[in-house]
């Protein structure tokens, strides 16, 4: 079994990004990411701080707007609009989840699609589904980057995705379909989950259920990507029973240190991509 070390792979990617950022800066463009945090959810705060830290480490411009959870939907929408119009901001991210009185759909749709570095806007989701170039959501993109860096062949392989959310399950399946995988989606209503997962050459667990994937559900030699982030007795653990599954898997991601670091790195990647488009636009005028 080989460990798919997300920290190591994302470290290499960050070095590449750092060089690109340096070049952009020489051309007078500093990639900028605006993050909006509503309320004081501890996990959200820690994600946001680590996104900000990474921006700083890479020499990017980062803005954090913290808003109380009593804010109205209209006030949040107007904060987004300010960043839509700000030429120094290449990417806008509103940390989810939001308080229940605010519509996530309206908020996501308010972000200008060309600054939607999370890739959640329906226009970008539609482009991914139709195979057009777009901002791909960061976790799926991080998974693809890991597979490519490790020269894992995707074409013709049986990929099984456990989970069908709009931010992980659905887009990762679409992304790997566009790389010519044969994709099966499983979800909470799937009957006989193990019969599907056992077929997987590449198994992606994104259900948010601790240790859902046991050794018996994994084919010998399979590549196992664990997206899950669950807190059990105060400890972070994935959707895969790591200790048991590593006995049968060919390669496996740990939690923490697997998909998580890749996600943040691909957020930086998408922001740099947006800044490059700004540069191309600037050059064209
Ligand atoms: P979600 O709750 O929106 O979706 C979970 C999906 O899993 C649903 O489609 C549901 O049908 C399916 N599911 C639930 N129970 C199941 C079961 N018993 N069998 C089969 N399918 C089942 O969650 P999400 O936002 O997609 O996130 C999934 C997990 O990934 C969470 O633990 C989340 O914290 C984690 N996550 C990690 C990263 C990262 O960077 N590592 C990023 C995003 C999400």
Automatic annotation (TrEMBL):
Presence of the UniProt keyword Membrane in the record: no
Gene Ontology biological-process annotations: L-histidine biosynthetic process; methionine biosynthetic process; purine nucleotide biosynthetic process; tetrahydrofolate interconversion
Catalytic activity: (6R)-5,10-methylene-5,6,7,8-tetrahydrofolate + NADP(+) = (6R)-5,10-methenyltetrahydrofolate + NADPH; (6R)-5,10-methenyltetrahydrofolate + H2O = (6R)-10-formyltetrahydrofolate + H(+)
A molecular function (GO) term: methenyltetrahydrofolate cyclohydrolase activity
Family annotation (Gene3D superfamilies): Leucine Dehydrogenase, chain A, domain 1, NAD(P)-binding Rossmann-like Domain
Function: Catalyzes the oxidation of 5,10-methylenetetrahydrofolate to 5,10-methenyltetrahydrofolate and then the hydrolysis of 5,10-methenyltetrahydrofolate to 10-formyltetrahydrofolate.
Protein name (record): Bifunctional protein FolD
Organism: Fictibacillus aquaticus
Name of the encoding gene: folD
